[in-house]
C-alpha cells in the first residue's frame, strides 16, 4: 500500500514534465507570431495596387495570409489530438490571432481599403474582453466562450483574405462585385465583433456588479 502511494506521484510528475512548453502546437503558435512581421514586410514590399494590372506580389501576400490564418486551426488540432493543451498555449494563441487580424487590417487601412472605424471596433472589443477576462478570473470564475467568437474570427479572416486577393486583381465588373461582397463580409464581421463583445460583457455583468 505504501509503495503504491510513493510511486503514483512520481509517475504523475514525469508525465507532466514530458509535455513541457515546447509542444508541436505551441511551436506552431510561436511560428505564427514570428511570421506576422515577416508577412507585413512582404505586404509592404509588394506595394500599393495598380489599377488595371494584375499584381503577383499582392496575390502572393493574399495566399500567405490564408496560410497564416489556417495555422490557427493547425495548432488547435495538434493541441487537442495530442492532449497537449497547455497554459502557455492558452496565453499565446489568442495573442497570435489578434496580431494576425490587427496587422492585416492596418495594412488594408494603409492601402485605403478599410475604414478606420473597422480597426477601432476590433481593437476596442479586444481591450474590453481582455479586461473583463482578467476581472472574471480574479473572482475565480470562468465565462464560457460562445460560438459568436468563432463566427467572428472566421468571418473576419474570410473578409481580409478576400480583400487582399481583390487588391491584386485588375479592376473590372466582376472584381468590383467581389470587392463589394468581401466588404459586406467585413461589415458582417464588425457586427459579430460588437455582438460577441456585448455577449461577453453581459455574461460577466454579475461579476462586475458584485465586485462594485
Beta-strand level of the residues, as a percent range? under 5%
Helix content: over 70%
- The number of helices is 7
Write the H/E string, N to C. HHHHHHH
User: What Rg, in angstroms, do the CA atoms define?
Assistant: 21 Å
The counted number of beta strands is 0
Given the helix and strand composition, which structural class is it? mainly alpha
- Largest beta-sheet details: none
Oligomer: single chain
Q: Can you tell me the overall shape?
A: globular
Supply the key terms.
212 residues, mainly alpha, 7 helices, globular, disordered N terminus
SSE blueprint:
Blueprint (H helix, E strand, L loop, with lengths): L1 H18 L4 H23 L9 H26 L5 H24 L5 H23 L8 H22 L4 H39 L1
Helix pairs in contact: 2-3, 2-4, 3-4, 3-6, 4-5, 4-6, 5-7, 6-7
Structure description:
The chain has 212 residues and is mostly helical. 83% of the residues lie in helices and 0% in strands. The protein has seven helices and no strands. The radius of gyration is 21 Å and the shape is globular. The N and C termini lie far apart (51 Å). The model is unreliable at 1-18 (pLDDT under 50).
In a few lines, what is going on in this structure?
This protein is mostly helical. Helices cover 83% and strands 0% of the residues.
Amino acid at each position: 500500500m505504501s509503495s503504491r502511494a510513493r510511486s503514483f506521484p512520481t509517475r504523475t510528475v514525469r508525465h507532466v514534465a514530458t509535455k513541457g512548453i515546447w509542444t508541436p502546437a505551441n511551436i506552431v503558435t510561436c511560428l505564427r507570431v514570428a511570421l506576422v512581421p515577416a508577412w507585413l514586410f512582404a505586404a509592404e514590399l509588394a506595394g500599393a495596387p495598380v489599377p488595371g494590372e494584375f499584381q503577383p506580389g499582392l496575390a502572393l501576400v493574399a495566399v500567405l495570409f490564408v496560410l497564416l490564418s489556417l495555422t490557427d486551426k493547425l495548432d488547435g488540432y495538434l493541441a487537442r489530438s495530442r492532449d497537449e493543451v497547455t497554459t502557455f498555449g492558452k496565453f499565446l494563441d489568442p495573442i497570435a490571432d489578434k496580431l494576425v487580424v490587427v496587422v492585416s487590417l492596418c495594412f488594408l487601412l494603409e492601402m485605403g481599403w478599410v475604414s478606420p472605424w473597422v480597426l477601432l471596433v476590433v481593437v476596442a472589443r479586444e481591450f474590453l474582453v481582455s479586461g473583463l477576462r482578467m476581472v472574471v478570473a480574479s473572482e475565480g470564475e470562468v465565462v464560457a466562450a460562445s460560438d459568436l467568437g468563432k463566427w467572428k474570427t472566421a468571418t473576419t479572416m474570410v473578409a481580409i483574405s478576400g480583400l487582399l486577393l481583390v487588391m491584386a486583381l485588375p479592376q473590372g465588373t466582376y472584381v468590383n462585385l467581389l470587392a463589394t461582397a468581401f466588404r459586406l463580409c467585413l461589415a458582417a464581421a464588425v457586427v459579430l465583433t460588437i455582438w460577441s463583445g456585448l455577449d461577453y460583457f453581459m455574461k460577466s455583468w454579475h461579476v462586475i456588479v458584485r465586485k462594485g
